[in-house]
Amino acid sequence: MEVKSAYIHIPFCVRICTYCDFNKYFIQNQPVDEYLDCLIEEMERSTVRTLQTVFVGGGTPTALNLAQLEKLLLAITKIFNIKGEFSFEANPDELTLEKVKLLKAYGVNRLSMGVQTFKPELLEILGRTHNMQDIYQSVENARKVGIPSISLDLMYHLPSQTMEDFKDSLDKALAMDIDHISSYGLILEPQTQFYNMYRKGKLKLPNEDVGEEMYDYLLHRMERSSMHQYEISNFGKEGHESEHNKVYWRNEGYYGFGAGASGYVDGERYTNVNPVNHYIKKIKSNERPLLRSEFPTKVEQMEEEMFLGLRMNEGVSKQRFYDKFGQTIEDIYGSSLTQLLDQHLIKEENNHLKLTDRGKVVGNLVFESFLLNI
Ligand code: SF4
């Protein structure tokens, strides 16, 4: 299948958030310009020239200064003919009017902003660099220059976060008439400051039930908004769903460019080397900057098709599954399916299998049922 999407990674941040286990580095003293040269070279080396979706993420792409940002934008738009969605991740305090004008001038049509919460105390706990005013200002800047689609990320199940806090953040985001919201519960990941604090007994997380209640509230509150849910954690107005992320959930191919970036091309799932210096060295010595590569077996592909597809409200197409694998979902998952249908965790509609509301809350349990021990 032709690959029409690309993810481009900028692994730098001006401060490291306490909960973050993403592939990122504190920007100070990093060889940012050298990295950009290598990233551009990796993109030039690829054979793809026309793309439907491009997502520039991180780290934080807006941590780049104006000159670096322009160099990157110029290169991306010179190398690729971007037909559809051109997304950038942004931090509210870094999205100055100058930067957002530049993004707009090079055709960026979607911003995904790492807001997380509007509550100052929680922003502090998370180690974020922005404040509430930055959120309003950055959205205003983006609207002023005419970015057509703005998405905010909001987190729940945070240390010391109450249900009222979460409701308030959600209300504030909705009051801004934003186009899209992604909302994720905090997951405590090893090798984060949060994890160390937790192990030393210095961090208290709300119990699991609170997380489930918050998610439940999110589903019901979003039903009363101008956005519709289209994936477990994602809600958008008509025409504002993330086309790029849907490529992942539909288990389709995409290129990954940059240190630590992953891609899925011609049946190969690959991950580039990390950290930044290793990546630069590989590119400079004219090697493929490869850390890992694997070709998922048919069984693994079927599992991925189920896990990823069930995340979306449209669900997994039974016909598409059959066309791809030559066997029906019932052939492969007969007894698990019957059990999940009986437990009202999944449902069948229009020849698609979908999670029920209850299934969305306990999603991981459902996904486990689709692991094949073959
Ligand atoms: S800005 Fe994003 S990538 Fe950077 S440390 Fe914070 S959460 Fe991680």
TrEMBL record:
N-terminal signal peptide: none
ATP-binding as UniProt keyword: no
Domain Radical SAM core: 1-228
Subcellular location: Cytoplasm
Keyword set includes Transport: no
InterPro entries named in the record: Aldolase_TIM, Coproporphyrinogen-III_oxidase, Elp3/MiaA/NifB-like_rSAM, HemN_C, HemW-like, rSAM, rSAM_sf
SUPFAM superfamilies: Radical SAM enzymes
Family: Belongs to the anaerobic coproporphyrinogen-III oxidase family. HemW subfamily.
Protein name: Heme chaperone HemW
Organism: Staphylococcus hsinchuensis
Lineage start: Bacteria, Bacillati, Bacillota, Bacilli, Bacillales
